[in-house]
Design brief:
Elements (H helix, E strand, L loop, with lengths): L1 H7 L4 H12 L1 H16 L3 E6 L2 E6 L2 E4 L2 E4 L2 H26 L12 H10 L1 H23 L2 H5 L6 H27 L1
Helix pairs in contact: 2-4, 4-6, 4-8, 6-8
Keywords: Membrane, Transmembrane, Transmembrane helix
């Protein structure tokens, strides 16, 4: 038992509590699962990759001009995307879900502890994360390819909207929980 506690002691209790709430929330968990199933099976990007040849990029390769081109580096790109955007997004959302009931720092908290509570709040980090993902999408897709690839890339540009949807859903859940806890007092 102490071995398990020592191995998991670094994991923040608010994230664990928030992950539990995330899994129980149908409005958060099901879109998350469907999106990741789509990433594994559906097209990642569509558009004109090569002059006058419409192509569709999947996780396992590229279908362009009637030819299938197997590609193994797309997995690496999507793994980097997972580590750079999806895992931080999930951690921020779970942290916020885990702190919904006890949002305020304790009254006896020091100034440094209150500053840490403010800096760890997901509202501080979610907007830069979404803006960074949008910036990467614009620089990678629009600068490299054309406008159709930029607009028809569900696993690059659309995930900014997906992250925004999840964040807004967490905010609505938070408002409902705060209203419920306020009516009980």
């Amino acid at each position: 038992d102490s071995l398990v506690q020592s191995m998991c002691s670094w994991f923040h209790p608010e994230i664990t509590r928030g992950l539990y709430r995330f899994v129980l929330s149908d409005g958060l968990f099901y879109p998350w699962i469907v999106y990741f199933l789509y990433m594994g099976c559906g097209p990642l990007m569509m558009g004109y990759f090569v002059d006058d040849s419409f192509g569709v990029m999947f996780l396992s390769g590229l279908y362009i001009g009637g030819t299938w081109l197997p590609e193994s580096l797309i997995y690496v790109s999507e793994f980097i995307q997972l580590c750079a955007f999806h895992l931080p997004l999930l951690a921020l959302l779970c942290y916020r879900l885990g702190r919904q009931v006890d949002r305020a720092p304790p009254a006896m908290a020091t100034r440094c502890q209150r500053l840490a509570c403010i800096l760890l709040d997901s509202r501080f980090w979610i907007y830069p994360l979404l803006a960074w993902q949008l910036w990467l999408s614009v620089n990678f897709l629009l600068a490299t390819y054309d406008l159709t690839v930029f607009l028809l890339s569900p696993c690059r540009l659309w995930q900014v909207g997906f992250g925004w949807y999840l964040h807004r859903t967490v905010c609505r859940n938070e408002a409902a929980m705060l209203a419920l806890s306020g009516s009980q007092h």
